[in-house]
Design goal:
Length: 128
């Protein structure tokens, strides 16, 4: 059990490190995933951390448990064909400051992101 928890901690650490590195790059997110995040922004903002790490495939789960994160691991088996997300080089993990999340949520609730969300892929960094 200890080995499983250690492995999960290492995976989470790697995921968070990857997410932090993402800030230096463009954050491209699928429309449906961004809508899910923004529909549940309050849940993500309840987290007291200054940096919000969102595992897009787990949305709307704002507080994933190690068992939830284990579902993201792809450590064995034959390689699968690239998904739309891989082909478009969209993010699987989104990191936002609390301020950016609040700003995006405000724009979304005011209807100011409607035109942007008409696109299949959204550049999150182009706003706020």
């Amino acid at each position: 059990m200890r080995a499983i928890l250690s492995g999960m901690a290492a995976m989470l650490s790697f995921s968070v490190s990857s997410a932090i590195a993402q800030d230096a790059n463009q954050a491209l997110v699928r429309n449906s995933e961004l809508r899910c995040v923004l529909d549940h922004a309050e849940s993500y903002l309840e987290n007291a951390q200054p940096l919000i790490v969102i595992f897009l495939s787990l949305c709307p789960n704002a507080n994933p448990r190690p068992a939830d994160l284990a579902l993201l691991a792809h450590n064995s088996g034959a390689p699968t064909p690239p998904t739309l997300q891989e082909e478009a080089k969209t993010s699987t993990i989104l990191t936002l400051t609390r301020e950016k999340m609040a700003c995006l949520s405000r724009l979304y609730s005011d209807g100011d992101l409607d035109v942007v969300l008409a696109d299949e892929i959204v550049d999150v960094d182009a706003h706020c």
